[in-house]
Amino acid sequence: MHHTGGPGWRITMDTSGPMLLALYIRDVTGLAGAGNPALCHVAPAIRPADHHQLTAHVGGTDALRSQWEKWWGTLVDNRTGRQPELAPPSFPAFAPMPALQRVLQAHFGSALTWAREQQSQYSLLSARRENLGSPKILAELVQNREMELGRNARDFTLSIVEMPLCEPRAWFVEPNRLIMSQHLLDDEPVFLSFVQPVVELLV
Description:
single chain, alpha/beta, Zincin-like, 2 domains, 5-stranded mixed β-sheet, about 50% helix, about 15% strand, elongated
């Protein structure tokens, strides 16, 4: 995790274990384009598995998609704090979402292993960035905007959630969350094209 801030403002960069698990489940079940925002596939790609027998008697793929999107919505909008508890092996909090519950029961072990691997890799990436001073660009964005406006930044927080995604992109989730590829910071011009407008809006 990286923190940067000043009087009244704070920007954090980190990954998210629950969101990693959700993206694994999305990709392993082939729910391309699901969710809002609809993130691209993770990288490296996860091979889809046939889940039709698991969900056929509880609404099938349509039910699975809508239930996954509901779960994803609670993870994206983390202000509510109403994320269902991931409690294997039966996942009782997902009982109202039986298609998703069955898929979680079938794939949770591999999803958890994958998510932990991604978190470990992210920790190494984050440490390397700190040594290189890469996150300083965030403070510089705020300071440059303050100079343009001739005033201090308004009070704000911005949470940047980094995910192992196949496209160098970012998605702004109002009011103050940015979900982005964890390799976007490696390409400064592309990073700025996504992040600078958000920072300018908040400052």
